[in-house]
Amino acid sequence: MGPSNSLPVVVAGGGIGGIATALALRANGYAVVVLEKSAEFGEIGAGIQLGPNAFHALRTLGVADEALANAVYIDRLMMMDAVSGTQIAAIPVDEPFRRWFKNPYAVIHRADLHASLLARCKSDAGVELLAGHEVTGFTQREGGVEVQTASGATFRAAALIGADGIRSRVRELVVGDGAPNISGHVCYRAVLPIEQMPETLRLNAAVLWAGPKSHFVHYPLRGWKLFNIVATFHSAKDTAEQLNAPGTAEELMGHFGHLPPVPRSVLERSDGWRRWVLGDRDPVANWTQGLVTLLGDAAHPTLQYIAQGACMALEDAVCLRDELSRLPGDFSAAFLNYQDKRITRTARIVLSSRAIGTYFYHPQGVERLVRNQVLGEKTPEDFYRSLDWIYGYGRDQAA
Ligand SMILES: Cc1cc2nc3c(=O)[nH]c(=O)nc-3n(C[C@H](O)[C@H](O)[C@H](O)COP(=O)(O)OP(=O)(O)OC[C@H]3O[C@@H](n4cnc5c(N)ncnc54)[C@H](O)[C@@H]3O)c2cc1C
User: Fold this and answer.
1) How confident is the model at residue 1 (pLDDT cuts 50, 70, 90)?
2) Ligand 1 centroid distance, CA of 25 (Å)
3) Which residue CA neighbors atom 50 of ligand 1 most closely?
4) Is 321 exposed, middle or buried, given 0-12, 13-18 or 19+ CB atoms closer than 10 A?
């Protein structure tokens, strides 16, 4: 079976991971059907940070120019002590950073990123995008997979890629590791028009205010019209995952009373809060079964603390593209090679994200003082070296 085979590859899920996968499959000449359970293809939430490693992936997928048209190129990642209001550390992401990693750091509205990838798929007759199709199961048969959906429709496919997110149905059937781990961390998300952002905080930076068992982040979006606001805190009462529910200012401000007045006013002025209960999964050593594999959050969902979940999904898509081009038509072997290349790296992101939350973002008492000293001593080059494993990935092939 090869690209000349008439069966398409089915991708379950049309988020950033699924749509990038469709592009990766098209680069190898496969017809693709993307089945998305929601009534429409789209993205929930506002901003997303893209490290230099995501730029390389977008370039390789041939969509960098469109995808980054609305990106804001920030020049610093700043960490502030939310108790004292003083700066703990700043990582310049300006020219020296760009030279080191051979690509910039940007922030972008996730709808803009998703829409540009989707537009490329829509303009390609080889991609069929079917919304309102929830994948419920699959059966592997000689030379192909039958994919079942909630409506009763079935699709015959050369292979199936589950890009169906943290609660992936395809993962349930391939890995079977139950529900995600609930971290007890709750995240509130909103956007604030620039006029309402305090002038001293209208910074061309991703700024993180690290406080006791909590932190919040702000950065500019969409040509500086908006600021993306993401506030996270520990919550013992939340034991089940929750996505995009309405949030209340009372609950949020109850966790951020320690903030000095100016950063506190950012949270007070924001409204339309959406509430997420965050989760991840323990890394696994296998996420492939014959002609079926996983990608993005379905394979390795992570807490967002190093802002790499979507970046990993884009890297996965590039890796899949490369492995399929080495073994045309041999999906089972290519999928195993793909997961071999991706498991350690993505597991390191998952485990490091947990550790960063505990040791860098949320410490209190003496641990907070140690954190401030450890990070305060670092030079930009120290940071570049310690971030090299994340952002340097793919640098040597970067255009
Ligand atoms: C608060 C927060 C901030 C973040 N910030 C960043 C950041 O700055 N940088 C970064 O790189 N990452 C960030 N991430 C992570 C990033 O959002 C995710 O890792 C990324 O969006 C995962 O994409 P995906 O396509 O794998 O999964 P998803 O975006 O979850 O997409 C899965 C798709 O599959 C569909 N689906 C689900 N089940 C089925 C089914 N059975 N059949 C068909 N379709 C199905 C869903 O409707 C959805 O459209 C953040 C995450 C959070 C929560």
Assistant:
1) very low
2) 19
3) 304
4) buried
User: If you measure from the C-alpha of residue 292 to the centroid of ligand 1, how many angstroms do you get, rounded to a whole number?
Assistant: 19
What pLDDT is recorded for position 326?
Answer: 97
Hey, how many other C-beta atoms are within 10 angstroms of the C-beta on 79? Answer: 23
Q: How far apart are CA 307 and CA 316, in angstroms?
A: 16
Given ligand 1 and candidates 19, 21, 37, which is best to mutate, with the most ligand atoms within 8 Å of its CB?
Answer: 37
Calculate how far, in angstroms, residue 385's C-alpha sits from the geometric centre of ligand 1. 29
- Per-residue pLDDT of 26-45, as tens digits, reads 999 999 999 999 999 998 88
**What pLDDT does residue 6 have?**
82
> Which helix H or strand E contains 109, and what residues bound it?
strand 106-109
Q: What are the structure tokens assigned to 77, written together?
A: 């990642």
Better-scored residue on pLDDT, 244 or 339: 339
For residue range 344-369, list pLDDT tens digits in order: 999 999 999 999 999 999 999 999 99
Ligand 1: centre distance to CA 45 (Å) = 10
For the segment 240-261, the average pLDDT, to the nearest whole number, is 91
**Amino acid letter, residue 215:** H
Instruction: Please say whether the beta carbons of 295 and 215 come within 8 A.
Output: no
Task: State whether the beta carbon of 296 lies less than 6 angstroms from ligand 1.
Answer: yes
Give the amino acid at 355: A
Ligand 1 center to 62 CA (angstroms)? 21
Angle value at C-alpha 118, between 137 and 187, nearest 5 degrees: 75
The chain-wide mean pLDDT, for the chain, equals 94
- Ligand 1 center to residue 223 CA distance, Å? 24
Q: Does the beta carbon of 187 sit less than 6 angstroms from any atom of ligand 1?
A: yes
Q: Check if 309 has its Cβ closer than 6 Å to any atom of ligand 1.
A: yes
Residue given tokens 């309102």 in the structure block: 132
